[in-house]
Design brief:
With 245 residues, the protein is mainly α. The chain has helices at residues 2-34, 41-48, 52-59, 62-86, 91-108, 110-123, 128-153, 161-180, 185-204, 209-228, 235-243.
């Protein structure tokens, strides 16, 4: 009898976890399509195939569900960032991997990017818990980028890495918005190639001198066309500028 009771309890827990996950996934899909305000509790429950009572049981409110949604989105972002930044070979490959990973998220799970944009526009100032959850999501992403860069260059004293991570994240968000309007693969390639060059240049002046020297040929090869298009800027001129106190 005890074993039967334990088995039934395990089955209920599994069923409860499944319904919770369905609610989160339904909310991600609907909010990314319509926005938060236009997505009702009834809409979410119908998409998830569960009763409204299940939503209130798991999350207490629609806003409680939103917190779980942001946690899920953040975890997927961080997982992709860490996978791409930490598991590549040399530093340039790792930075390229960051951009490639963002492109993959955009292609495979575009709703994750649309969702946070909707929420920023709709809820950033409307609700303190939601604003705090959005801020926490971006801090997590930025910290993951910082850790990856520190690991890449092998030191912890790179100047203003938090600002660099903020700039990189903003750049990737902008690329996602631009790509969402494009259908031409060649244009999409150009957007992400420019992201790649810009990420490298954002970090270049912050790298230790020994790292810059070691990577100089590779950086010149990858960003040469961008540098060459800048009026009056040469490789030597850029290096001198970066070495100034």
């Amino acid at each position: 009898m005890a074993r039967s009771t334990e088995s039934a309890s395990s089955a209920r827990r599994a069923q409860g976890e499944e319904s919770r996950q369905r609610l989160v996934e339904a909310a991600v899909a609907l909010i990314s399509e319509r926005g938060y305000a236009a997505t009702s509790v009834g809409d979410i429950c119908r998409r998830a195939g569960v009763a409204k009572t299940a939503l209130y049981w798991h999350f207490e409110s629609k806003e409680g569900l939103l917190a779980a949604v942001l946690e899920t989105v953040g975890s997927r972002w961080i997982e992709e960032i860490e996978k791409q930044v930490y598991l590549q070979g040399d530093p340039i490959q790792r930075l390229n991997g960051l951009v490639d990973g963002w492109r993959r998220v955009l292609r495979e799970e575009p709703q994750l990017l649309r969702l946070h944009l909707f929420l920023q526009l709709e809820q950033g100032d409307a609700s303190e818990p939601t604003r705090a959850a959005l801020e926490a999501l971006f801090h997590r992403a930025e910290r993951a980028i910082v850790r990856g860069i520190e690991d890449t260059v092998g030191c912890r004293d790179v100047a203003d890495l938090d600002l660099a991570a903020h700039t990189i994240l903003a750049l990737l968000q902008g690329a996602a918005l631009r790509v969402s309007m494009l259908r031409d693969e060649a244009e999409i390639d150009r957007v992400f190639d420019e992201c790649r060059r810009t990420v490298i240049l954002v970090l270049w002046s912050r790298l230790p001198e020994a790292t810059r020297v070691a990577l100089e040929d590779e950086v010149r090869r990858r960003v040469g066309s961008a540098r060459g298009s800048a009026r009056g800027t040469s490789d030597r001129g850029l290096r001198d500028e970066n070495d100034r106190p």
